[in-house]
Amino acid sequence: MKELLKFAVCSEIILNLSRKRTFKKTDMLKRRRFIQKIGWGAASTLIVPQYAFGCKRPDEKIGVCLVGLGNYSGTQLAPALQLTKYCELRGIVTGSPEKIPVWQKQYGIKDKNVYNYENMDGIANNSDIDVIYIVLPTGLHAEYAIKAANTGKHVWCEKPMAKTVAECQSIMDACEKNKVKLSIGYRMQHEPNTQKVIAWAKERPFGKIQKVQAEVGFNIPNPRDTWRMNKQMGGGLLYDVGVYAINAMRYTTGMEPVSVVGKFENTRPEVYKEIPETTIFDLQFAEGLTAYGRTTGRESINILRADCEEGWYQLSPFQSYNGVGGKASDGTLLNTYIENQQARQMDDDALAILEDRPVMVPGTDGMKDVAIVEAINQSAETGRAVRISR
Question: Please, how many CA atoms are within 13 Å of residue 36, restricted to the half-sphere of its CB?
């Protein structure tokens, strides 16, 4: 059997060379994972050298390039990349030259792996980089995710995926055209307590789910005047953290909503000039199931709860960098600890590349949330219930 496997690997390489095929680094990563499965001892007798054609050694990682060096990249993603097993921070794209020496010193980034927004197309020829991670204001996601896909590198995009469904579709089209993977940065779906809630949507340990509640809010007396307060740039709490509540409603029920009623509230119009201070939304699902959601800038709240025929369960907080925790009506605790949510997310996405399997949170998932955001906004502006497009 081992002889047949060795022959298959060797024959594939020789066949592709005869066709003058250009080998991508991801091809080599797949081969390396395959060789690990059959055993390095068996692979070592191949007539082609083990690390020929740029194949990565087993101790090497997926190279990640961060696009946008704002707060989330600096305080969450870059530190998390130091904790990952399967990926590594190798490149940056920034429009702030003063940040470059700071990042290079802290993370050892090579000069050739530093880009700006005008020359990032050059990443296409950079073998150090396998993934481009878009960490920009929401209004810029589509433009730069498409640029990233056109380099032939895999794309990771922060949530929300984009401002509109049309933009989401354009990102997916670009990734499909360039045959690269697309993953949306919903870290909570990689978190073990959340995964238990996702599993319970199918298992129904407390009977049929009757109602879901998902609320995220912060007591923000004086919000900073950043892009998050700018409607054109995709600001607003509904886009920023409301999509966590929307995504949670979907994975907690295991269903897709059919309609929504939305409402805006604003007690400080002099502060919240372009975006609502509070958005309330009631999602209607099949089988009479309802979900109540709210995102607000005037109260600290962070809860996901499912009320069922024979009990209840909840996570509170359900989306916190410092950890997720919860309980169920029968005394079950949802308190599994992991060191870093972002590191778990990026390692899962890196393994999807290495093993050439579907990502956990694909573009279709991100687009569904954006469709619901658009429906909520339409309902709140018109005062009518809105059916949600599929």
Answer: 13
Residue in the structure block whose two tokens are 């997926």: 62
Fold of the domain built from segment(s) 188-336+363-387:
Dihydrodipicolinate Reductase; domain 2 (3.30.360)
Q: What is the pLDDT of residues 345-373, one digit of tens each?
A: 999 999 999 999 999 999 999 999 999 99
* Ranges of H-type helices in 151-208: 165-177, 192-203
The helix (run of H) or strand (run of E) holding residue 169 is helix 165-177
- For residue 291 the two structure tokens come to 């979900």
R_g of the chain computed on alpha carbons: 23
Q: How many residues does the chain have?
A: 390
Residue tagged 């619901």 (tokens): 372
- Look up residue 239 and give its DSSP letter: I
Question: Each residue of 203-262: pLDDT tens digit?
Answer: 999 999 999 999 999 998 888 889 889 988 999 999 999 999 999 999 999 999 999 999
CATH number of the 62-184 domain: 3.40.50.720
* Residues 116, 94 contacting (CB under 8 angstroms): yes
Tracing tokens 């800038």 back to the chain, one arrives at: 297
Interatomic CA distance for residues 214 and 355, integer angstroms? 34
| pTM over cut 0.70 | yes
Residue ranges of domains in the chain? 2-54, 62-184, 188-336+363-387
